[in-house]
Amino acid sequence: MGVRRVGEKLRYVKVDIITIFPRLVDAGFGEGIVRRAVERGLVDARVWDLREFTDDRHRSVDDVAFGGGPGMVLKPAPIFGAVERIRRERGDPPAIILTSPQGRRFTQPEAERLSRLSHLVFICGRYEGVDERVREHLATEELSIGDYVLTGGELAALVVCDAVIRLLPGAVGDERSVEADSFARGLLDYGQYTRPADFRGLKVPEVLLSGHHGAIRQWRRREAIRRTLERRPELLGSASLDAEEQELLRDLMEERKGANHGDKRD
Ligand code: 9WO
């Protein structure tokens, strides 16, 4: 897991996920970097089956909505019961997160904030909603991963866990790739290429084959800024650009003023 900064502690994060589909959540923890982080002890993850916290014969987790209307609502008692069990067995969590389209938008800075917490609990909603008392009196925050409706909160919780876990020191083999990634600096990624240098006549930009590291770094910075300007100009407002990059940005904006927008497929 590579080099650790001086004074950087090896820490682990507890993650508890409450769901009616535990296997769906297990699958998200069962592959790749997230799985390795669990194996390395950086993440202590537990998945809780909401049905285990019911007390009726049918193990009902949902019920009709007061006031009528179509669709079922997740009952409060099993969810409160699950969180109380987690508190007893795992300690008092600093964040109990409900994933829903009504939440605050989850972004990279939010991933960084959560990655500094010691214990995250996720409540995954299903059906047409979750009893409002869960939202108001149990969850400490509500997060949305984007403006669309899913069939439940599990995939959103997995998205948040994935983004958080890769930020934990030691999770990604080469720490430099976390620092260099798109968004770490508020810019989109530059284009990347691997062998062959000529694929069916499609060539890799010459500069990348030149071995001239200064020129390569410069090209990549320019490409990242160009792409961000073309696709997500609003990101440039909060990107951290040094003097040279601001210069590149001015150049690119001049270039675009000329003509030829939209005809570069990039
Ligand atoms: C379904 C529905 C059907 C008819 C009328 C209103 C309705 N609302 C919903 C709904 O929002 N269902 C949610 C499904 C209930 C909570 C869990 N579900 C969910 C979470 N869908 N999408 C998310 C989600 C979470 C985080 N970021 C984006 C989406």
Task: Describe this entry's structure for a reader.
Helices cover 38% and strands 17% of the residues. The longest helix is centred in the last third of the chain and has 19 residues. A five-stranded parallel β-sheet has the order 2-1-6-5-7, with helices on both faces. It has a two-stranded antiparallel sheet with strand order 3-4. It has two domains: 161 residues, Alpha/beta knot (3-Layer(aba) Sandwich); 68 residues, Orthogonal Bundle (Trp Operon Repressor, Chain A), CATH 1.10.1270. The chain has 266 residues and is α/β, with parallel strands linked by helices. The protein binds ligand 9WO. The site of ligand 9WO has 17 residues, from β5.
Q: What are the key terms here?
A:
Alpha/beta knot, 2 domains, binds ligand 9WO, alpha/beta, five-stranded parallel sheet, two-stranded antiparallel ribbon, Trp Operon Repressor, Chain A, 266 residues
State the CATH class of the largest domain. Alpha Beta
Radius of gyration computed on alpha carbons: 23 Å
Q: Which consecutive residue ranges, at least 5 long each, have pLDDT under 50?
A: none
Total domains: 2
Binned strand content: 15-25%
In the CATH hierarchy, what is the architecture of the largest domain at level 2? 3-Layer(aba) Sandwich
Question: Per the principal axes of the C-alpha atoms, what is the gross shape?
Answer: elongated
Number of helices in the DSSP assignment: 10
CATH level 4 superfamily of the largest domain = SPOUT methyltransferase, trefoil knot domain
Strand order of the largest sheet: 2-1-6-5-7
Class of secondary structure makeup: alpha/beta
Strand runs, count: 9
Oligomer: single chain
What can be said about the biggest beta sheet? 5 strands, parallel
Q: Terminal Cα separation, in Å?
A: 35 Å
Roughly how much helix do the residues carry, as a percent range?
Answer: 25-40%
- Give the distinct bound molecules: ligand 9WO
CATH topology (level 3) name of the largest domain: Alpha/beta knot
Mean pLDDT: 94
Spell the H/E element sequence.
EHHEEEHEHEHEHHEEHHH
